[in-house]
Every structure is written in structure tokens, then in C-alpha cells.
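Entry for the shared binder. Reason: the reviewer on the internal report wants the predicted structure included alongside the sequence.
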Amino acid sequence: DDLITPTATTQLRFRAGDLGEGSLVEAALDDLAVFRLVCEDTCQSDLGFAGPGDLSLSVCGPALATGATNDVTISNATPFGQVFLALGLSNTPVPFKGGTLVPIPLAVLVTLNADASGAVGFSIPGGSGPLSVFAQAVAPDGSQLNGFEISNAVEGVFEP
């Protein structure tokens, strides 16, 4: 009754059937459980602009409000390699190392190290908004023409 308020007119309908010919259709309902899946986690807006390379950035969790946290995940970096997380307060895409860098001007450049699988992960707290922060990961990659791979850009919207 936490999903709906039961009344004398509340109904649940079931269908029973058999696709075979000449069969007898029988059905029974022995036990009923109703579950509700509430998905409150979402990912912050992916602005695109990925490439060169396959470096990927995601910021996911509940709304970035006071008391909430989001998980930041950077994947597909060189195992044990350096990754730079570029952060800025504006979305001003400019050409950079064969791709596009979005958070210009840079407010902060954070140096991180990927693990054995080429991933970096950490959590960020919400609150202190309203404020949008633009983020993008950049990593050295000798296989790329200009020596770097660039992730997609993400807009993190911080709420009060």
C-alpha cells in the first residue's frame, strides 16, 4: 500500500493463455509481490566533443545538491598513465591537439593517475550552486597523431 492506496475497487488483472491447440488453460495466483524500482541516479549532461582516442568521462549519481555525491569515472586511458582533468566555468570549445577542448578558460587542471585497467574514479560532493562546471579529460597517448587523447565534455550542474 506504499505504491497505491487499496480500495474496494482496486483491481489487478492477469491473463492466462496457452498457444497450443486443444489445451486446457489453467492458472493460479499463489503469492503476489509488487516491487517498485526507483532510479534516482542520472548522469550529468554529456556535451560530446570526444576524440581523438577513446578516453571517456562520466559524472553520475543523484542531483548534485547539498548532501549528495556523484561518481566521476574516466575510462580507456593508458594503464598506469597520467590523466589530466580540465575544469572550467564556461563552455567555449577550442581546437586542441587534434580535438576540441571545451572548458576554456581553464579554472583548474587536476593531474590524476589511471589504474591497471586505464580507469580513474572518485566522488565529488554536490551543493554550493547554482553553478555549472564543465569538465573534460585529456591524457598523453603516443598512438595519437598529436600525442594526446581527449574525452567527451561533461557539464556538471551543482544545486544549492
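Summary line for the report: DSSP finds no helices and eleven strands in the chain.
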